[in-house]
Design goal:
By secondary structure, the chain is of the alpha+beta class. 23% of the residues lie in helices and 28% in strands. It has 10 helices and 19 strands. Strands 4, 5, 6, 7, 8 and 9 form a 6-stranded antiparallel beta sheet that branches. The longest helix is centred in the N-terminal third of the chain and has 13 residues.
Length: 414
């Protein structure tokens, strides 16, 4: 089958034809004494475009070295990976989106937004210790998902998938696929001796996987007259700002901002939320670009603080990017002791990403600038003041329930 140059070009973007091209490059450029370098130029246009963008805009673009000629026949994604490997900090944040593919770059464990049952889970042996059976322990059930609609709860245990015992070989059937028949159990507790037992077992039919659209806010309410709670999934839109603003009108003594599942957002929304939570005016964050773009370095300053009481943030290994910048910036600006963090260490995204749509059916998302707090201290993984790994507890209550491990520890501090 013959392919036009356009078909080959699109094939290269998707990663097709690369082995064929690499083997035939010599014949391609010089055939029967005829200079055919124009064909080389056409077939490497997608990667040359990516290189030009990265050389100019990438945080470490001014120190990039040219790649080997054969690298230019790779897919733009593979080519960009070779570029990012040159970064001194081991860039793990930049990525390529191909227009015709659906890849979720903001997955959380086993959950992805594009095609999912709406579950995050881990494999574990029988928590009661009575058998050696394996179970899928449900860590998160996302709202408006097939899992939520069929009644699966956070903290439940799945023992059978379509009648088969759960094992390491079949557990990922819970990621995506057709309709599933599940055997789901919940644990009970004996208050007298502290033992656990299987309290109930049900058979549930979970609909086929699909795109799961989540909002910004998981939960927002007053735990008591002095304590407010809000859980945010991302910092992208006005919903988070509006919900937090409404919550703060009650002037609680403590506001708990749960960012355990918050792994994306914009620096502009960080500034809006930080302004609501800050008790001081001053520089919250700074961005530093490469030497070619140093004129774009920016200072983000809070001019109208709103809230002066205590803030407790909750983090996990899924906490990433904008959520981390928010915490770092506020901790740097606020008096010591006003802000505390409970949970586990965060991902540590210390760079701001930018996006450029190429003319070759892909989008480049690249690290553009370092993020620091107002004092110039680099953003890094957030290490909690109080480390609590909720997965070490047998019972997982719904997020925001005052009896779940993290909230219980916050509310019962000495």
């Amino acid at each position: 089958m013959k392919h036009s140059y356009y078909e080959i070009l699109i094939g290269l973007v998707k990663g097709k034809f690369v082995p064929l091209v690499a083997c035939m490059i010599s014949a391609l450029i010089f055939s029967c004494g005829e200079d055919r370098t124009y064909e080389y130029d056409v077939m490497t246009m997608p990667t040359h475009y990516a290189e030009e963008v990265m050389m100019e805009n990438y945080l470490w673009g001014d120190s990039l070295k040219p790649l080997e000629w054969k690298d230019y026949f790779a897919s733009p994604s593979a080519f960009t990976d070779k570029i990012t490997k040159q970064s001194p900090d081991g860039d793990k944040w930049s990525y390529i989106d191909v227009d015709t593919l659906s890849v979720d770059h903001f997955e959380r464990g086993k959950f992805n937004h594009f095609d999912s049952y709406g579950l995050d889970y881990v494999l574990m042996t029988d928590p009661t210790g009575e058998t050696t059976k394996q179970y899928a322990r449900i860590l998160t059930v996302y709202p408006h998902s097939p899992a939520a609609e069929c009644g699966i709860e956070r903290g439940s245990f799945i023992s059978l998938i379509d009648g088969e015992k759960v094992t390491s070989k079949n557990i990922d059937r819970l990621k995506q696929g057709r309709e599933r028949k599940l055997t789901v159990s919940l644990l009970g507790f004996n208050e007298n001796d502290g033992s656990i037992y299987w309290a109930s077992t049900d058979t549930l039919i979970m609909g086929k996987s699909r795109k799961v659209t989540e909002g910004q806010i998981w939960n927002s309410y007053l735990i008591d007259r002095n304590t407010a709670y809000i859980m945010l999934l991302n910092l992208n839109d006005e919903d988070a700002v509006d919900a937090l603003q409404t919550l703060l009108t009650t002037n609680p003594q403590t506001v708990i901002v749960d960012l355990r599942l918050c792994n994306q957002g914009s620096i502009d929304k960080v500034m809006e939320i930080a302004s609501l939570l800050s008790d001081k005016s001053g520089v919250l964050l700074k961005t530093s670009y490469n030497s070619r773009r140093s004129g774009e370095n920016k200072i983000y300053e809070i001019t109208k603080p709103h809230y002066s009481n205590e803030i407790v943030f909750v983090t996990s290994n899924y906490t990433q990017g904008a959520a981390e910048w928010l915490i770092h910036g506020l901790k740097g600006l606020s008096d010591k002791g006003r802000i505390s963090v409970f949970g586990t260490s965060s991902a540590g995204q210390n760079v701001l990403l930018e996006e450029i749509q190429s003319p070759y059916s892909y989008t480049i998302n690249y690290a553009a600038a370092y993020i620091t707090d107002g004092e110039g201290n680099a953003v890094s993984s957030i290490v909690p003041d109080v480390t609590i790994n909720e997965y070490e507890y047998i019972k997982l209550y719904p997020y925001g329930n005052r009896y779940e491990a993290v909230l219980d520890s916050i509310l019962n501090r000495q």
